[in-house]
Design goal:
With about 375 residues, this protein is mainly alpha-helical. Among the domains are: about 5-65; about 175-250, Arc Repressor Mutant, subunit A (Orthogonal Bundle); about 265-365, Arc Repressor Mutant, subunit A, CATH 1.10.10.10. The protein is about 60% helix and about 5% strand. The strands form three sheets. It has a three-stranded antiparallel beta sheet. Strand 3 (about 265) and strand 4 (about 275) form a beta hairpin. It is elongated and about 175 Å long. It starts with a helix and ends in a 16-residue tail after the last strand. Keywords: Coiled coil. InterPro entries: KfrA_DNA-bd_N. It holds the Pfam family KfrA_N. This is Protein of unassigned function.
Length: about 375
C-alpha cells in the first residue's frame, strides 16, 4: 500500500518535468506514477491520483498547449461547464424518452382494451350464431324442390333472302332491267290489238295478249296481271304517249304535238318567224349599218331614216320609241359593241359589226 503523499509527490514531479526530445510533455497517469514510485497497486494509486487531479485541476491537453495559467483556468472552467451542460442534456433526453415510453405504453393499453372489447363482441355474435345453428338443427328439414330446367335458347333462323334489304335492292334492279324489254313488247302487242279492235277494257286487252308474252313477264319477275297492265297504260295515257283512256277503256291515240312557241313571230307576211331576241339583234344591227353609212345621228333621226317596215315591225314586240332606242344602244355600248354616244345624245358607229356565234354570217350586219 502506498501513501497519499508519495502518490501526490510523484504526480507533482512528473507534472514539473520538461518536454522530451520529441517536444511532448510527460502526462500524469496511473502508469507514469506507478513507474516513478516503483511500487504499489494500480487501484490504490488511481484512487489517490484522482483526488490529486481534482485538487490541482489537472488538464493534460491544456497543459500540453503551455497556455498562461489564467487562460488555462478559464478553459478548465469552460470545459467543466460544457461537460455539465452535456450531462444535463443527456439527462433531459433520457427523461423525455422515459415519458414517451410511458405514453406509448398508455396508448398500447388503450389499443389492447379496444381489442378486448372487439373480442367480447365477437364472442357474443358467435354465441348467437351457435344458438341459431342449434335451433335450425332441431327444426324439421325444409322440402327441397328440384330446380327447373333452363329454357332452351331459341334457334336463330336466318331471314329469307327476299326480306334482306341488300338482296331486295339487287333483285329490284335486276327486275327493272329485265322488265324494260318486256314492257316494250307488251306495248307493241297492246297497240296492235287496239288498232284492230278499237277501244277495249283492260281485262279484254289482257285476254287478247299472247300467252308467251305473259310467261316471259312471269320469268322476268313481273307478272303481267290486269292491274299491272292498267297502271302501265294509265301512265302512258297521262303522258300522251300513244294511248288514251276514254271512260275506263283504252284506245290508241296519236302523240300530242308540241304547242307553237308564242315568242316566235314574223316580221312580214312573207318573212320567216323570229323570236324577240333574234328580231332585236337584227334591228340593232340595221341601226349600226345606218350609222356606219350616214354618220352620227340622233335616235329620232335614226327612226326616220330606217328602211321601210322595221319601225312598224317593232309593234309586234314592243313599239320602238326614241327613248327605248337610246336604251338599247347604250346597252350595246356597255357590251363593247362598235357603237358610241356623242354629246347631245348623238350615236355613231365605230367599226364593223362582229358576226354572232348564234346566227350565220348572212345574219350579221
Amino acid at each position: 500500500m502506498v501513501a497519499r503523499k508519495d502518490v501526490w509527490a510523484a504526480a507533482d514531479g512528473i507534472r514539473a518535468r520538461a518536454r522530451d526530445a520529441d517536444g511532448a510533455k510527460p502526462r500524469v497517469s496511473v502508469r507514469t506514477v506507478r513507474k516513478a514510485l516503483g511500487k504499489g497497486s494500480f487501484g490504490d494509486i488511481a484512487r489517490e491520483l484522482a483526488e490529486w487531479k481534482a485538487r490541482v485541476g489537472y488538464r493534460p491537453l491544456i497543459e500540453q498547449a503551455e497556455l498562461p495559467e489564467a487562460l488555462q483556468g478559464q478553459l478548465a472552467a469552460f470545459g467543466t461547464a460544457l461537460l455539465e451542460h452535456v450531462r444535463v442534456e443527456q439527462t433531459r433526453h433520457r427523461i423525455a424518452e422515459a415519458e414517451g415510453e410511458a405514453a406509448r405504453e398508455a396508448g398500447q393499453g388503450e389499443v389492447l382494451e379496444e381489442a378486448l372489447a372487439q373480442v367480447d363482441l365477437l364472442d357474443a355474435r358467435v354465441a348467437m350464431l351457435e344458438a341459431e345453428l342449434a335451433r335450425l338443427r332441431a327444426a324439421p328439414p325444409a322440402p327441397v324442390f328440384p330446380a327447373p330446367d333452363p329454357e332452351p335458347e331459341p334457334v336463330k333462323v336466318p331471314a329469307p333472302m327476299h326480306l334482306n334489304p341488300v338482296y331486295g335492292k339487287v333483285r329490284d334492279r335486276h327486275t327493272a332491267e329485265a322488265a324494260d324489254p318486256v314492257w316494250a313488247e307488251v306495248r307493241v302487242a297492246v297497240t296492235r290489238v287496239l288498232e284492230q279492235r278499237g277501244p277495249m277494257w283492260v281485262h279484254a286487252i289482257h285476254l287478247s295478249l299472247p300467252d308467251r308474252l305473259k310467261e316471259r313477264a312471269e320469268r322476268a319477275g313481273l307478272p303481267l296481271t290486269p292491274a299491272w297492265l292498267r297502271l302501265h297504260l294509265i301512265r302512258l295515257a297521262d303522258a300522251g304517249d300513244g294511248f288514251a283512256e276514254v271512260e275506263g277503256r283504252f284506245a290508241v291515240a296519236p302523240p300530242v304535238e308540241a304547242a307553237p312557241d308564242p315568242g316566235r313571230v314574223a316580221i312580214g307576211t312573207d318573212a320567216p318567224p323570229l323570236s324577240a331576241e333574234w328580231f332585236w339583234k337584227l334591228f340593232v344591227a340595221e341601226v349600226h349599218d345606218l350609222l356606219l353609212e350616214r354618220g352620227p345621228l340622233t335616235a329620232e333621226r335614226i327612226l326616220e331614216d330606217l328602211p321601210d317596215g322595221w319601225v312598224a315591225a317593232t309593234e309586234r314586240y314592243k313599239a320602238i320609241k326614241p327613248g327605248r332606242l337610246r336604251q338599247k344602244l347604250r346597252e350595246r355600248i356597255r357590251n363593247k359593241r362598235p357603237l358610241q354616244e356623242l354629246p347631245g345624245k348623238v350615236f355613231a358607229a365605230t367599226g364593223r359589226w362582229p358576226g354572232s356565234r348564234k346566227f350565220g354570217p348572212d345574219e350579221a350586219a
